[in-house]
Design brief:
Length: 146
Amino acid sequence: MPNGLVFSSDTSTIDVDLVHRWLSEESYWARGRTRETHEAAMAGSRNYGVFDAQSGQQLAYARAITDGATFAWIADVFVDPAARGRGVGIRVMQGIIDDLEPLGLKRTALFTEDAHTLYERFGFQSLPDPDGWMLRWGTGYAPATP
């Protein structure tokens, strides 16, 4: 339990009300998302949370949309502002990578406007165009050279 943080890939542990509030009110990418849309997105995804080991309080959420064989898209990565600086973002990303790695995916993608440094530490790279997209090549795959 690094930094007293617990990672979970069990959707039943996710505080849906809290996550919906975070995303629909505090994120730049999902502001105004309806509860119905949020629940549908969760239903079609692998869902992840990071929790404080002592209090059990949820500190982060993320999800991955994947076919389970070739591709995944990591989305809705959110760390409670009060918990930032404790390594929560690192813990959620390491847990996601550990969960997806056994699938042998060729590519895992995400989009970010402001957290490039965090994702780069997990092997994600900026694409030549557009600047905001990032891609992490799976084990044994390399980007094509022009």
